[in-house]
Description:
Elements: E1 4-9, H1 14-23, E2 34-39, H2 50-55, H3 57-67, E3 73-76, H4 84-90, E4 95-97, H5 98-107, E5 113-117, H6 122-133, E6 139-144, H7 155-171, E7 177-180, H8 189-196, E8 200-201, H9 203-217
Helix pairs in contact: 3-4, 5-9, 7-8
Amino acid sequence: MPDRILVVNPNSTDAVTQGIDEAMAPLRFAGGPEIRCVTLAEGPPAVESQSDADGVIPPLCRLIRETEAHAAAFVIACFSDPGLFSAREVTAKPVLGIAECGILTALTLGHRFGVISILARSVPRHLRYIAAMGVGERLAADLPVGLGVLELANARTTLVRMIETGRRLRDQHGADVLVMGCSGMAAYRAELEAAVQIPVVEPTQAAVAMAIGRVRLGWGCRLSLPGD
Length: 228
C-alpha cells in the first residue's frame, strides 16, 4: 500500500491549501507517511454554504477514485465534511473528515467544546452535523467571527476576532476546549491557544493525526466496497 495521506482542500483557493500544508509540519517525520495537500480545482473559491458543500461532492469523489492507487488514506479538509459518506463508498481506503475528527479530538481534551465558525450562516450547518454525531450535549456554543474563508488571510483582523470569540466561548458559554471551524484558520492555532489558555484543536491536524494512526496500524481498510 502506498504510504501517502492525501489531504484534499475542497475549495479552489491555493492559498488555503498552502496554509493547510504548513500546518502539517509537526506531523511530518522520518519514517512516517508522506502528507500531500492538494486543491480541488473544480471546487468554489470558498465552501461557505450547504450548496457549496453539496456541489463539491462529485468532483471530490472523482479525485479520490482517480488517486486511490497512490494513497493510503484521504482527509477532506473542510469543516462541512462535504462528501464524507459518499467518498467512503468509492474507496476502500480510510476517508476522514476534519469536522468529525476535530470534534472527536476535542472531546478527549475537555468536557464542553466550543466551535469558532467563519460566518453566521455556517452555524446551522454545523449544528445539524453535531446533532447527527450525537454529541450536542457536549457543545458549549458555535460562534462566528464574521469573516469569509478568503478574508481569513488578513492575519491581524482574523486573529483579533478569533481571540475575542474564543474568550466568549470560554467565559460566557463554559467551553474548556475550542475547535477551529474552518481549515483556513490553520495558521492561527498556536497564537489563539496562547491567548485563551485552553486547548485549541486545528481540525485538519486532528484528522491527519488520526489518518497516520490508521495507516501505521492498518485500520479501516476494507477488502471490498459496499455492494461488491
